[in-house]
Amino acid sequence: MPYSKLKNLYVEKIIEDIIFTGKVLYQEGLVNSHAGNISVRFENSIYITKTGAMLGYLTPNDIVEVPVVGTSPNDEIASSELIVHREIYKKTEHKAIIHAHPIHAVSLTFFLEDTFIPIDNEGKLFVKEVPIIEVENASGSKELADKLSNKFKSTGRNIILIKKHGSFVAHKDLNYALKLTSDLEFCAKVYYLVNQIKPLEK
To answer: If 87 and its partner were Cys, which of 25, 131, 149, 173 is the partner (CB 3.0–4.6 Å)?
Structure first.
């Protein structure tokens, strides 16, 4: 099979996976109607959801291709967090990124300082310690792009929370990034509920 045809098939699969991922994120309440973004890196391109796209109802037209290095006309319609995704791909070996707004996980960042440590067994096994970073402008800013990408690179973690904003999960596999995003919110919910029943020691 010619490489060009093989590449087209691979890109079609990427788009299908992004659409599926968006649907699950929305069904699980990990994003609200027009929030969050998803991307996958393939070779020198990033396939990313458009700005303002409804992740629960994505179509192939809601996903655009942009370069990892440099810019393109599609930058104008790509997610406003493109600058963040691009920097993470430049500085790490990750191939997929999910930015979500898990309610319980975000709520915890109002009270926790620089780390969220799950207390449940699932969290200890898969989520482990989650760094929390704070930026002045948490939406598609160069500050966020630089600070977040450097944190992924320096810690080797797959999950990072942005204080009062949301989560970024980066991994070599989009489906596993989805699992970790779901795991994060489950662990945050357990942490929150246990703390409501009996406040945890600081």
So the answer is: 149
